[in-house]
Amino acid sequence: MPFVNVANDKIYYAERGAASADAPHGTPIVFIHGSGASHRVWGEQVRALGEITRAVALDLPGHGRSAPPGRATMEAYRDVVLGLLDALGLARAVIVGHSLGGGIAQTLALSHPDRVAGLGLIGTGARLRVLPQILDGILSPREFDQTVEFIVDHAYAPGLDAAARARARADLRACPPQVTHGDFAACNAFDVMTRLSDIRAPTVVICGRADQMTPVKYSEYLVAHIPNARLVVVEDASHSVMLEQPDAVNRALVEFMRTL
Known about the structure:
eight-stranded mixed beta sheet, single chain, Rossmann fold
């Protein structure tokens, strides 16, 4: 199983494909998951993008197979991603993030534009306020179960099959509450609405039409303020669009990679 050491933390990642002169697209792509999740949410994307380049999905600290502690700011998580890029010898990559991961990706693009060949912002925004009932409930033993159900109900479309919803519920339960709370705290403090015009990386913004957590208007704002950005709205999908409509997301990402 592949692990790298980043700032003395053991970070797990999954990968497929190889970026080389023989690959259809030489620029690697790195996927960053959202709050309380793991690299597993990117399974379909890693398989599809691994056909054309090196595709990597990491577990953020404290998530999945990566060692704790978690982090509580976008900048701290950004530094982990930078450490991963360095450890894997990736001078530049396309950075794709979902929700929290999208905030991390934007933070990286603003602070280290030389490391970002392109951005994929999925179910995210330039500001990510979190409901107090989530921030408070995730740490409350009495309210934890109810909070998990609330998150799953709002992060997935009603039509998502029962097995997928069960996996989402299990991932949230597996992540230590303090780590998930740190994720949501990072989101709640995140705001780059006035800085988006400084992003120079080509960008694709993808969202589900029925997203309740980061509505389509969040994605429209990103596209209106990031130069060289385009919008893909996926029908019959909610916040976890990459799980609900993986083929549509894969098509959008493959096309984006080929236009870089």
